[in-house]
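ESCALATION

Customer reports they have been waiting on this structure for their group meeting. Please prioritize. Original submission:
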Amino acid sequence: MDLGLRGRTAFVGASTAGLGRAVAEALGREGANVVITGRRGAQAVAIAADLPSAIGLEVDLLDRNSRGAAIAAAEQAFGPIDILVINGPGPKASPAAGLTAADVETAFAQLVAPGQDLVARTLPAMRARRWGRILAIGSSGVAAPLDNLASSNLGRAALAGYLKTLAGEVAGDGVTVNLLLPGRMATDRVAALDTATAARMGLDVDEVRQRSEQSIPAGRYGDPAEFGAAGAFLCSAPASYITGIALRCDGGLVRSL
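Update from on-call: job pushed to the front of the queue and completed.
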């Protein structure tokens, strides 16, 4: 299938590792001009060098001025942004009963404000050209809130609500807005979480992973490349009638439809 992405320009947040990188590389393989971003500027440049048409930028996505400078650099290199992939770090683990006002502010500052700002900077040109894709890399916590991740659940649900509202407003302009929700993917972050769980429970890390895999109907962790392919499709021309959805790429982990 031709995804119709050749020559399109994609700005991918936090794409020097993990799922952001997987989506960026999938878009690059489909012929898109890709803007790799992250705090590790040298890593961003190295990843971009391996793609057919890409640049790497050092960006602090939590800083408004840094975001603005990155968008400006991307547009100078490739022209207006066609595809915006919202992605970034989440807040610390925390129980709901222990949340403070500062925790709530941090959740919004990390998970809602950066995405909204990036949309505000790129959406007008998408609407003017009557073609655009906005994709947020979220969490399965949007569909089923995760224990001890109250700040993340709060912020990601707020972002999802904003994007769902936006999807209905811009669909007539040829702009789609979707979320892609990972389950247990084989990333460095998930490996670190498994290691931390093993240490906390006094278990071998392999046992922790086996227990986790047993909770997934597919019986394994997902390959980031699988997630990246799903992301590239949602950003594609053939997906032009898919908007306002939260698609799970989780091997059946979340039991709801």
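Sent to customer with the following note: The chain is about 45% helix and 15% strand.
Escalation resolved.
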